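Troubleshooting: if your tokenizer reports a length mismatch, compare your output against this known-good record of 97 residues.
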Amino acid sequence: MQFDHERLGHDVVAMLWLRVAPAALADVGHALATHPEVRFAAAITGQANIVAATLHPNTGDLYTYLSGKIGALDGVRAVETALTMREVKQLTYEPGR
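Known-good structure output:
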């Protein structure tokens, strides 16, 4: 089952790599799980320790999300953002496999 986010008015897909203080990792992860903009989030290894995929109706909304909701999270030290130009594959679920 594919999800067509553009038909729902979400034209901007962004990947966020967050660098979070270790003591705040669980709290930031739980907070991201409550954000309607976030369609996927996970703790990872490397320079960033949380990755999130987000959906937004426009770049202005992405800016507001980053400066408001992400900026307000205690423990977030930095965020790197990349816009998705084109999805070539999306996770699907096929019953019976």
